[in-house]
Amino acid sequence: MSGLVQLNAVGVRFGHVQALDGVNLRVAAGERLALVGANGSGKSTLLRVLHGLVSPTRGSVLRDSAARQAMVFQRPHMLRLSALNNVALALWIRGTEWKQARQIASLSLGRVGLGDAASRNARTLSGGQQQRLALARAWSLGPDLLFLDEPTSSLDPNAKREVEALMAEFAQGGTTLVFASHNLGQVKRLATRVVYLEQGRVLADLPVHDFFNGSRLGETSREADLFIKGELA
Amino acid sequence: MNTFSESAATALALITGFDPVLLSIVARSLAVSASACILACAGGLVLGAWLGVARFPGRGALLTVLNTLLALPSVVVGLVIYLLLSRSGPLGFLGWLFSFKAMVLAQTVLVLPVVAALTRQVVEDVDRAHGEQLTSLGAGRLLRAMLLAWDERYALLTVVIASFGRAISEVGAVMIVGGNIDGFTRVMTTAIALETSKGDLPLALALGIVLLGVVLALNALIAAVRRWRIGGKDQPLLLEGAPG
């Protein structure tokens, strides 16, 4: 395996629902991979399988065990602690001494522009601030591979731009990004490669330019056609 | 003046005059129930939190048993503890029967399932919603359980208070294993039962008023904790700049 993660014929079933079906995917270092598709297409499940939160019911997952991973969720959950301690706790869980964890956490908060909010209860931060805090938490872990599940879907345009800028910074710093998104503009701005999912199957896996220009995906799937035109996004 | 109003007046006089017999019974009741509550919470909070995140074969059956124990009749607990602690029972060598310790043990057994079952529910709900984020950070099952329990500490405080209320208001278990011995194992509920049967209504009524006062105070505490929780509850993911 030459990538960071590789899925071979992966299937995931939740009860009677086939969330993923026969997915083959390899994530290489340095990529910015966008997972797109309508609601229920399997994007979030695929992210969770890639990150190791969900085990496949069929197929296999190969991982580069040396690669550090982190994930930012659509609605980040912060504990009833200060913003600083929420970040420090993530480091402590991974074995960093508490005092050092707080120092790194402080740097991370500064990086996402939350230095002034370090002592505030994380639960009292706005949605955009909480998402930036989640990115600070992820950044502090120094991930080689960062998964993001629709990180801007509940944010206003300003907060979206801030989060996108931070995602771009991650990528410039060498972090491989895999993100699920409904926002086609965001996909065009951030991704280098697009995987289109429909009913748990990968219908397209193309470089971003090819996906939006010249892909014949729309001819094979009415849903994909609507999605690419932005009518399902 | 009728019997009730006479008894009520005498009861109030006992309370306002800090009657030593009344005070000793109240103090013993609080000590027994508080000790039982501390022991039950020490075990029940950890057990409940772990059950909230653990998945293993037979978990469903165990939860059914645990939930059934929520409605455990106190006289049945009293009977079982009595049989265990009686001279011929397996724990008879301890010599605890008709003692403070026996009453604490009985109330601990009575309250522990309440703490464990309610804690399990609280932690399981929050784990279902957010547990994977802690797993993503690298938290193992036990650490996740402890972090989620700590994060839900205000909800669990309500559980602790409710369990104390269950302990202090029960009569069957302490009556059987404590024996209601004057000055030794007599607590509020057993004293009320005895004094009523003897016709000493003022003392029974005074104890009843104090017991009601304790329960009322607990309810007020639960309401205060709930208000505190709602006041500090997570803000929804507001759009930045949006009112709210």
Fold and architecture overview:
The complex is a heterodimer of chains A (233) and B (244). Chain A is α/β, with parallel strands linked by helices and 233 residues long. Chain A is 37% helix and 25% strand. Chain A has helices spanning 43-51, 83-93, 98-111, 127-140, 157-172, 184-190, 208-212, 217-220, 222-228; strands at 5-14, 17-27, 32-36, 58-63, 69-72, 145-149, 176-180, 193-198, 201-207. The longest helix of chain A is centred in the last third of the chain and has 16 residues, at 157-172. The mean pLDDT of chain A is 92. Chain B is mostly helical and 244 residues long. Helices cover 76% and strands 0% of the residues of chain B. Chain B has ten helices and no strands. Chain B has helices spanning 3-16, 20-53, 59-69, 74-85, 100-137, 141-151, 153-169, 172-178, 188-198, 201-231. In chain B, helix 1 (3-16) packs across helix 10 (201-231) and helix 5 crosses helix 6 (141-151). The termini of chain B are far apart. The model of chain B is unreliable at 233-244 (pLDDT under 50). The chains are: A alpha/beta (233), B mainly alpha (244). The interface between A and B is medium-sized, with 32 and 26 residues.
